Amino acid sequence: MTPITEVEGRRLALSNLEKVLYPATGFTKGEVLHYYATTAAALLPHLRDRPVSFLRYPDGPDGQVFFTKNVPPGTPEWVTTAEVPRSEGPARMVLVQDLASLMWAANLVTEFHTPQWVIGAPGEADRIVFDLDPGAPATIVDCCEVALWLRERLAADGIDAHAKTSGAKGLHLLAALRPVPSEQVSEYAKQLAVEAERALPRLVVHRMTRSLRPGKVFVDWSQNAARKTTATPYTLRARPEPTVSTPVTWAEVEECGAPDRLAFRAADIAPRLEEYGDLLAPLTEPGSAGSLP
């Protein structure tokens, strides 16, 4: 029998709570739901008003993994949805606006991915993102070196950057912007990626070509395109263990001497929130946004 629970006045059927989703650690679906419930205060501001793409892994990361952009079948009528323009025609997508919607979505077993714009202004980016992806034998330690260079370069243009782990093997750099067309943000991000390659030629590549990437950090500027999404802060990832895309301090980036120093799992997040609060809160606060030069 599927348990029914009430969240903020909404009735939810939460299924298969004992199902092990991360066999390496025995982490269950019930623990996934508990993680999202206890992280909601930090996570929800990063989801609010942004159409959500779900990476679903209902049988764990070793089972079927599939990407869902359209509103899933059976979505309750009280979950907010919105029409989103796309080049191939408009689509209806989910907006996770509150705890009840978050728990409904978490019950589907999802990673959360969001664009750099809000539903009120599609294609007008209010964030810039750089996805720093290491090609083996490079690691997140190398990403940290690149992140520090990009932080200073962005600061020179009056843009205050923040870092988080990808929850996989890399690092994400984000900054709040006064809204500007996504195309302009992509052009600026590409310009900085090219500059980073010139400044750190032994370490950085700005092109996606696989043959160029071993031993270097790919500075992926393309996720600023309006059609692209990035793993949302605090989302769990479909990895062997319940790793989390985790905001980190610049001191942690500067002191990252080994890959495991910036590897965080679900159990690590509550203590970090207790110690630091949401390190990415400036991304959601009015008045903290920079302007493109």
UniProtKB/TrEMBL annotation:
Keywords tagged on the record: Ligase
Enzyme class (EC, first level): ligase
Domain of life (superkingdom): Bacteria
GO molecular function, one term: DNA ligase (ATP) activity
Keyword check for Ligase: yes
Residue span(s) of domain DNA ligase D polymerase: 28-279
Pfam families recorded: LigD_Prim-Pol
EC numbers on record: 6.5.1.1
Name of this protein: Bifunctional non-homologous end joining protein LigD
Organism expressing this protein natively: Streptomyces pseudovenezuelae
